[in-house]
Amino acid sequence: MIEAPRHPLKISLEKCIGCVHCLTACPTKAIRIKNGKALILSDLCIDCGECIRFCPHDAIESQTTSFTDLDTFRFKVAIPATVLYGQFDNATLPHEILFALRRIGFDHVYELSTICELNNAAIEAYIDSHPRPRPLIASTCPVVVRLIQHRFPSLCDLIIPIEPAREIAAKILRANLPRILKIEPAEIGIIHITPCPAKMVSINYPISMEKSYLDGAVSIRDIYNPLFQAIRQSKEDTLMCQLFPETIFSGIGMGTALSGGETRGLKNHRTVAVSGVRDTMRVLDQVEMGLLKDVDLLECMVCPDGCVGGPLAVENRFLAMSRILRLVNLLGERTVVDSSDMSMLYHKDFLSFRHPIKPIQVPPLDNDPDRAIRKAKRRINLIKKLPGKDCGTCGAPDCKTLADDIVRGQAVLADCLFVKEKK
Amino acid sequence: MTEISFQQEFEIKGGDFVRAGEASCEIKNLLKELGVAMQVVRRAAIVSYEAEMNVIMYAGSGRLDLSVTSDRVQIVVDDRGPGIEDVELAMSEGYSTATPEMRELGFGAGMGLPNIKRNSDIFKIHSKVGRGTRLEMTIRTNGHRL
Question: Which among A153, A366, A373 is the nearest to B38, CB-wise?
Answer without folding.
Answer: A153
